[in-house]
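Q: I'm building a small set of examples for a reading group on sequence design. Run inverse folding on the following structure and report the sequence directly after it, with nothing in between.
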């Protein structure tokens, strides 16, 4: 039996609420949007580069955002960032080295990374600052804003890729 990415129920962004809740809700909306764009597709389809000449795929986007979740979480937890895909020899492996990738495993890792990130930042204030190399580098508010922007940009890529795969359009 061929694995297909499951259907997802997308959360909705809040228009009214405290700042932390609004930012988190829109971040979750964009996370869910990526999964929504993958829903119902087979591993082969998720690996299909559909917007020539780019080799970008939905699976590549999912893997890239998996690493992004882990990277940002490591800033707040102080954990060492250990990328699941990129290497020194292939820094863009998450996006482009997908021929032998296991889509189901990558999908599950993405979901796991989301949950770990949610837990890591759930009790933190928006003004909480992380340090890099002993210097203040940013706060949770900036992280949310950046990641919402990053996900929204990649959602546009995902829209085009999905439309080329099976004609499905829309948000």
């Amino acid at each position: 039996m061929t694995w297909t990415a499951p259907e997802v129920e997308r959360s909705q962004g809040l228009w009214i609420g405290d700042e932390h809740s609004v930012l988190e809700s829109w971040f979750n909306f964009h996370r869910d949007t990526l999964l929504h764009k993958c829903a119902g597709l087979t591993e082969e389809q998720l690996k299909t580069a559909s917007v020539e000449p780019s080799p970008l795929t939905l699976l590549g986007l999912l893997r890239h955002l998996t690493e992004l979740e882990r990277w940002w979480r490591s800033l707040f937890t102080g954990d060492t960032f250990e990328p699941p895909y990129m290497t020194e020899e292939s820094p863009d492996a998450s996006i482009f080295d997908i021929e032998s990738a296991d889509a189901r495993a990558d999908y599950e890792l993405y979901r796991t990374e989301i949950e770990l990130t949610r837990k890591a930042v759930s009790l933190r204030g928006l003004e909480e600052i992380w340090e890099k190399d002993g210097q203040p580098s940013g706060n949770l508010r900036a992280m949310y804003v950046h990641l919402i922007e990053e996900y929204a940009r990649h959602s546009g890529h995902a829209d085009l890729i999905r439309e080329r795969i099976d004609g499905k359009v829309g948000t």
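DSSP finds six helices and two strands in the chain.
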